[in-house]
Amino acid sequence: MNRVSIVRQNDYIHDSLRTSLEEALAPLGGMGAFVKSGQRVLIKPNLLSGKAVEKAVTTHPLFIRIVAEMVQEAGGIPAVGDSPGVGSLEKVAEKIGLTPLLSEIGVSLVSFSDAVMVEHPRGKVFKRFEIARPVTEADVIINLPKLKTHGMMTLTCGVKNLFGCVSGLRKVRWHADAGHDYERFAEMLVDLAYMVKPALTIVDGIVGMEGEGPGSGDPRQLGLILAGTDPVAVDRVVCEIVGLSPDELPTLAAAGRLKLGVSSLKEIEVAGDSIGSAKVEDFRFPAKTIDTGMLPGFIRKLLRDALSNRPVVGHEKCTLCHVCVTHCPAQIMSVKDNRITIDYSACIRCFCCHELCPQGTIRIGKGWLASRFG
Ligand code: SF4
Ligand code: SF4
Question: Within 13 A of 11's CA, how many CA atoms are on the CB side?
Answer without folding.
Answer: 4
